[in-house]
Amino acid sequence: LAVSVFQDEHIASKKVARRIADIITSKQEKGENAVLGLATGATPVEVYYELARLHKEEGLSFKNVITFNLDEYYPMNPGAKQSYVRFMDEQLFNHIDIPRENIHIPDGTLKKEEIANYCLEYEKKITEVGGLDLQILGIGRTGHIGFNEPGSAPNSGTRLVTLDDLTRRDASRDFGGKENVPTKAITMGIGTIFKAKEIILMAWSKKKAPIIRKAVEGEISSNVPATFLQLSDNVEFILDEDAASELT
Ligand code: F6R
C-alpha cells in the first residue's frame, strides 16, 4: 500500500484524472480496451470534471473505454435523483464519447429473485473483457469500499448488502431524511475490487481523517473493510492534507 498526500483535492484529482487518461491512451496505442472501475459520491466529482475537460479541450477519446460502477442502491429507479445511473450521466458520461453499451452500473430495478444471477453475470462480464485495469474508490466513514460494510469478507463477490446505519445517515441529505435512504445496495465485493490490476483510493477533508488512519495503520480486519487494501501492492491512497492529518 502506497500513500501519496497532496496539498488539496484539486491537485490530487487532476493527478488521478491524468493517471486514468494515461491508461486510456496507452491501451489505445495497443488497439485494446481500457476497463475502468468507477465510484460515485462526492469524492471523485473533480476527477470526472477533469476527464470531461480532457475530452473537450485535449481530444481524449473514451471510444475504447469500458466501465463498471461499484454499486447502486437497491431498490433504485435509474431516473431518480439519487440514482448512481443519473449521477454518472450527469458527472461524466453525458460529457464524453464513451459508447453507451460499454457502461455497466448495477441494476437497482431487479426483482429480488433475479439478483443473485445478475451479480454472477456482472462478475463474468468484468472477466470477459479482461478484468479491471484500474479501480477507483472512495471510502465511507464506516470503512466501507464500494458498499462493503463492516463484516464483509475479503473474498466477497458482487452481491446484495445491507447498508450500515452511519452510511444511511451520511446519505440522508441526498434523500431528504435517513428514513428515505434505501436499506440495501448491490455492490461489487472486496474480492471483485481486489482483482483490479491497480486500485486508487481517494479521500478528502478532515471528516475522513479518522477512518483513513484506521484504514492505513489499523489492524487488518473485516470490522474496517478498507484495511484489506493493506494486503495489496497495487493500491495507492491519494489524500489531501486534511484526510492525511491523523496519520502518524
Ligand atoms: C460510491 C461508493 C462509496 C463511496 C463512499 C464515500 O460508489 O462506493 O464507497 O465512495 O461512501 O462517499 P463520498 O465520496 O460521498 O464521501
Describe it.
- The chain has 248 residues and is of the alpha/beta class.
- It has one domain (2-229): Rossmann fold (3-Layer(aba) Sandwich), CATH 3.40.50.
- It is built from eight helices and ten strands.
- It has helices spanning 9-29, 45-58, 84-91, 115-128, 165-170, 172-175, 190-194, 209-217; strands at residues 2-6, 34-38, 65-69, 71-74, 103-104, 134-137, 159-162, 184-187, 199-203, 235-240.
- The strands form two sheets. The protein has a seven-stranded parallel sheet, sandwiched between helices. A three-stranded antiparallel sheet has the order 4-8-7.
- Helix 2 links the parallel strand 2 and strand 3 (65-69).
- Helix 1 (9-29) crosses helix 2.
- The chain is globular and about 45 Å long.
- The mean pLDDT is 98.
- Bound molecules: fructose -6-phosphate.
- Residues 11-230 form the Glucosamine/galactosamine-6-phosphate isomerase domain.
- This is Glucosamine-6-phosphate deaminase.
Feature tags:
248 residues, alpha/beta, Rossmann fold, 7-stranded parallel β-sheet, 3-stranded antiparallel β-sheet, 8 helices, 10 strands, globular, binds fructose -6-phosphate, Glucosamine-6-phosphate deaminase
SSE blueprint:
Layout: E1 2-6, H1 9-29, E2 34-38, H2 45-58, E3 65-69, E4 71-74, H3 84-91, E5 103-104, H4 115-128, E6 134-137, E7 159-162, H5 165-170, H6 172-175, E8 184-187, H7 190-194, E9 199-203, H8 209-217, E10 235-240
Parallel strand pairs: 1-10, 2-3, 2-6, 3-5, 6-9, 9-10
Antiparallel strand pairs: 4-8, 7-8
